[in-house]
Structure formats: C-alpha cells, structure tokens
Amino acid sequence: MKTNWLRRLGLTSLLAFSTLPPAHAQAACPGLLDHQFINLQDGSPMPLCQYAGKVILVVNTASKCAFTSQYEGLEKLYARLKDRGLVVLGFPSNDFGEQEPGSDQQIAEFCRLTYGVEFPMVAKTIVKGPGANAFYQQLAERTGSTPKWNFHKYLINRDGSEVVAYTSLTSPDSRSLLKKIEQFLGQP
C-alpha cells in the first residue's frame, strides 16, 4: 500500500512539473507579429512570432539606393545590441524607383558580400500601397506613417504595444533612434 501511494505521489509530481512552461519559453506572440514570411537567406519559413519579446527595428531596404550604405550601420547596430534583445529585420522592396530589381538570391549575396549582413531579412516584398504586405499595412496604421522611400524604419517595443516610425533620413546611428532603442530595451 505504501508503495502504491509513493507511485501515485511520484506520478502526480511528475504530471505537475510537466505542465510548467520551460524556462526558455518564448514570450506570447503579439498580434502585430502574427505574420509569416520567407527567409531571404535560406528560403525557409520565417514566422515573426519568433521575435516576440524582442525590440524589433523593421527596415525596407534596396540595393541600388543612395541610402543603401545604411546596411553597414544596421549590421553594426544589430551586432552590438542583439544579445540585449534587438533584432533588425530587413524587408527588401522594389517599390521605390525600382532600386531593388534583383532576385532574392542576388539580394542575399549583395547584402552578405558587400555589407556582411547577418541580421534576418525576408524575401522581396511590397511595402506600400494597396498591395503592401499585411505586416506593413499594420505598421502604417499603427503609426500613421507609410514608407516614402527605401530605408524607412519602424521600431517595435518588446510586447508590440508601441511602434515608432522613422524616415529614410534617420541613420542607424541617429541619436533619436538610439535613445528610443535603449528605452525599449530597458522595458520588460
């Protein structure tokens, strides 16, 4: 009888522990991030929910633009702050002046070879107008700001409740952008 009771207790304890979330469980996915894209670098599915709990800098990019050199600053920013929770997400788009005419493979190679880009990027997409992807439509609705050119930026806080827009003229090392990133990184 004592053995049966211990077995039940052991089983009950095991069941109780098995219902606890793992210590490394990901934050709940805010509705804003409930989108999936294709990863530019390897063609795999790229659910944005994997970035829940991170501070996200979303940038529509192009390889043949006067702002293309911002890739360098974006990569430096990502490398410096990724361990603290910053993710830079690149969204290549041919929407402005047809300055991203290449294939996904050409874009990925250009970014890697020219600027050493390691931050995640999605396959080429539309970011403006009625054909804009749903994620960009939500970002525009939330901020009242649509991209006017390449390298427009949206900064999203950890829980997706706050989104701030920055024009293409805002460089990755801009004081105002860095200050807001630090503020968002300091929030739980």
Automatic annotation (TrEMBL):
Domain Thioredoxin residue range list: 14-186
Hey, which family's this protein in?
A: Belongs to the glutathione peroxidase family.
Lineage at the top is: Bacteria, Pseudomonadati, Pseudomonadota, Betaproteobacteria, Rhodocyclales
Which residues carry out catalysis?
C65
InterPro entries hit by this protein = Glutathione_peroxidase (IPR000889), GPX_AS (IPR029759), Thioredoxin-like_sf (IPR036249), Thioredoxin_domain (IPR013766)
Give start-end of the signal peptide: 1-27
Keywords noted in UniProt: Oxidoreductase, Peroxidase, Signal
Q: Name one GO molecular function term.
A: peroxidase activity
Q: Which Pfam families match?
A: GSHPx
Note the superkingdom of the native organism: Bacteria
Transmembrane stretches in the record are: none
Name the PROSITE patterns for this protein.
Answer: GLUTATHIONE_PEROXID_1, GLUTATHIONE_PEROXID_3, THIOREDOXIN_2
**GO BP term, pick one:** cellular response to oxidative stress
The identity of this protein, by name, is: Glutathione peroxidase
